[in-house]
Amino acid sequence: MQWAALAAELAHRPDAGAERARLRAYLTWSDTVARWRAAPGDRALAQSVVDGLPDRLAQREVSAPEARVLAAAVLPVLEPDTARQTQALQALEQALPPAAAPGAQQQAFLREQAAVVAAWRTTPVGARDPAALQARLDALRAQHFAAERPATSIPTKSPQEVSR
After folding, report:
1. Exposure on the CB side of residue 83, measured as CA atoms within 13 A
2. Local structure of 117: helix, strand or coil
């Protein structure tokens, strides 16, 4: 039903094909992230997550802070050497667009997010749970920005969930 509404909305857009392709790419990448969270040691999935970050950033589907957090969670799977992880994170940081000056609400969120990520990174690598980290960050984001979330017509269920 929600996918039918999306298809109907796209039918009236001159860029329907491009938007459909963008949505397909984002949903495929998002599914890869979910599968990696379920199997955090899977190197191929971790590489796919990292490989998809530049496009997701360019499309503004992932924010720079989210990219940092995701990269910090995925890189230990791809690169066990912490010095090389740090180099890779620094390279990502240089590729990110410069941040606008955050407001007070954003600053509070960023401080708390940094504390959550820092605490997670002090956990031994084998005991880290990326899904738990993401859930904590999602809850933190909702706590700080839930009132700002605009209404959207984009479906929250995948085609497979709708067809069940």
Report:
1. 0
2. helix
Tokens of 131: 């899904």
Record the pTM. 0.57
3-class state of residue 42 by DSSP? coil
CA-atom Rg of the chain in angstroms: 17
Amino acid 147 reads A
Amino acid 148: pLDDT: 55
Cβ of 77: how many Cβ atoms within 10 Å? 21
Q: What are the pLDDT digits (tens) for 36-48?
A: 999 999 999 999 9
Long-range contacts of 50-58 (CB under 8 A, 24+ apart): 50/74, 50/75, 50/78, 53/92, 54/95, 55/25, 55/29, 56/26, 56/29, 57/96, 57/97
Which of 128, 163, 159 has the alpha carbon at shortest distance from 31?
Answer: 159
Question: Tell me: the pLDDT tens digits for 137-163?
Answer: 999 999 988 765 444 444 444 444 444
DSSP-assigned letters across all residues of 98-112: PPPPP-HHHHHHHHH
Amino acid letter for position 94:
Q
* pLDDT higher than threshold 70 for residue 5: yes
The alpha carbon dihedral of 164, 9, 22, 100 has a sign of: negative
